[in-house]
Amino acid sequence: EAQVTQNPRYLITVTGKKLTVTCSQNMNHEYMSWYRQDPGLGLRQIYYSMNVEVTDKGDVPEGYKVSRKEKRNFPLILESPSPNQTSLYFCASSFFRGGNSYNEQFFGPGTRLTVL
Amino acid sequence: RKEVEQDPGPFNVPEGATVAFNCTYSNSASQSFFWYRQDCRKEPKLLMSVYSSGNEDGRFTAQLNRASQYISLLIRDSKLSDSATYLCVVNMRSNTGKLIFGQGTTLQVKP
Lengths: 116, 111
Hints:
Strand content of chain A: over 45%
Largest interface: A-B, 30 and 23 residues
Structural class of chain B: mainly beta
Number of strands of chain B: 11
Structural class of chain A: mainly beta
Helix content of chain B: under 10%
Distance between the termini of chain B: 37 Å
Oligomer: heterodimer
Helix content of chain A: under 10%
Radius of gyration of chain A: 14 Å
Number of strands of chain A: 11
């Protein structure tokens, strides 16, 4: 089954304790992205990657890191989580043909993170 | 001003009603437009793309007005299962594949 998976689905942690949220897709997509969703603010892009070893900042990258060592995986790292990073996080992937083209983005099921 | 704006609602309508959502975008260079559907606490899923000439998919019709910079979604004969949040999404004219999401419009269809 074609899908995007995220782990963990739910996480409660404390300020300053490093954590990683994993994201994996089995559709051989070049493009992967992380979003956070907060009430009244909608989905905002944190980081994106257009291919292996190619990553760039989105709109709200502060406090986050990513890596793209393999095509299928795109982990999100919070080195020192803070309460303002409490949010619902989504990973997404799509094919990407470059230029102005766009393909449907497939989203993972979400990770609900609470930082105390 | 937000890049993509939607009325958050909620829109409460009876089954069988016709309901329309509008969305405005600020960047005239925007390239592609979409409606995504998001059920409560679940991931967004593509509902339909929006083409310049307008397009229809069953009970759903999407329209684009580039001159006024808005897109619309019309749902006819609403079903209980249409209850969800509808996200207006815009792809900027760039080579990054970046999507800008509106905050969503919530629809509740009542029996």
